[in-house]
Amino acid sequence: MTGQEVMALRGFDIDAPRWDQSTFMGRLRHFFNITDCRTALLSDGTLDEAKALVLSCRAGTLPPGTTEEQLHYAKKLYDSAFHPDTGERMNLIGRMSFQVPGGMAITGFMLQFYRTVPAVVFWQWVNQSFNALVNYTNRNAASPITPKQIGVAYVTATSTALATAVGLNLYTKRAPPLVARWVPFAAVAAANCVNIPMMRQQEILGGIAITDENGNKLGDSRRAAAKGITQVVISRVTMAAPGMIILPIIMQRLEKYRFMQRITFLHGPLQVMMVGVFLVFMVPAACSLFPQRCSMAVSNLEPELRDSIRSQHGDSIRYVYFNKGL
Predict the structure, then answer these.
(1) Is the pLDDT of residue 215 over 80?
(2) Per-chain mean pLDDT for the chain
(3) What SS3 class is residue 16?
(4) What tens digit of pLDDT does each residue of 172-189 get?
(5) Residue 211: how many CB atoms within 10 A of its CB?
(6) How many CA atoms lie within 13 A of 197 on its CB side?
(7) Other CB atoms within 10 Å distance of the CB of residue 11
(8) How many CB atoms lie within 10 A of CB 190?
(9) Residue 46 above 90 pLDDT?
(10) Are 46 and 73 in contact (CB under 8 A)?
């Protein structure tokens, strides 16, 4: 590496987006990068080394011989495994990079075992336990949540999913078979509308930290929290929709063939694999629907917060920014 290249890397802004985050395609490339499920297989030591390199780059003290490609890879691992607010390593199951292996197994079995009430109850419970951990892991960590609030959120979301799934399962006994196959998606969508807001209720009650474009905190906004959480709910439902709506149609048709009727024991694993194919594309696509660094016009904030910002900064600040979470 030449002296000029070393000097260039010392001024390298590792936190600058590699792709344009104002466009869907730029965000899609970013989330394809950090939701790569292969990163879930890496050891804690490898992740900690990546974090150390990212922190060294921020401090302007890069180890000799560091290349730009190594910096990009370290940032990929850092973004995939460490929380953007706290910098702490996230639990493995809650990371977005674990959404494909974790989600494909649970969703595949929900779609396979939908006929009996005990099976519906068990797999909806497993799914909501998984979702609760994902939602907690990817919350906005600037708004702490108590163990009691976590428990209430978990019980409420799980109860909603079970009530929806069992109720629709009984209601669709006389409906066309395909309608019954869509019951798991209805339950998942309903539970997401409850699970995410409940798990992040502290943000709704106390507000979410908002900043100017340079990252200087301006206050806490409940309206910003509501906007961010709504976008996360839409993203999560979108993430699940194609696999849970299209796959039942595919299986309904495949099961009419004799060769499929002879291998019923493989229907579950087959659905798991097909859900995985959907999720490989839908996890980054759904995460890309909205910018993670969300913006909101000052005019749309709560009146008291809006007036406070304008009294201190005049009209120089027109938009505020916040981490909406994933």
Answers:
(1) yes
(2) 85
(3) coil
(4) 777 788 888 888 888 888
(5) 16
(6) 16
(7) 7
(8) 18
(9) yes
(10) no
The DSSP symbol for 318 reads -
CB burial class (10 A; 0-12, 13-18, 19+) of residue 195?
buried
CA distances from 281 to 92, 130, 238, 243, 286 (A): 20, 20, 12, 10, 9
Amino acid at 95: R
The answer to whether residue 72 scores a pLDDT higher than 80 is yes
Rounded CA gap, 323 and 23, in Å?
A: 17
CA distances (Å), origin 112, targets 183, 212, 237:
12, 48, 19
Residue 136 is encoded by which pair of tokens?
A: 């907690």
Range in 132-136, 138-142, 173-177, 293-297 with the lowest mean pLDDT? 138-142
The residue behind tokens 């200087």 is: 216
Q: Which residues sit opposite 182 in a β-bridge?
A: none
Q: Give the largest Cα separation in the chain, rounded.
A: 75
pTM: 0.80
Place of tokens 């048709």: 253
Q: Which helix (H) or strand (E) holds 44?
A: helix 44-59
Q: Alpha-carbon distance 164 to 281, whole Å?
A: 27
Q: How many CB atoms lie within 10 A of CB 238?
A: 15
Inform me whether the pLDDT recorded for 98 exceeds 60: yes
Q: What are the tokens at 203?
A: 């943000």
Q: Give me the pLDDT at residue 224, please.
A: 92
* Cα 81 to Cα 97: distance, rounded to the nearest angstrom: 8
- The amino acid occupying position 189 is A
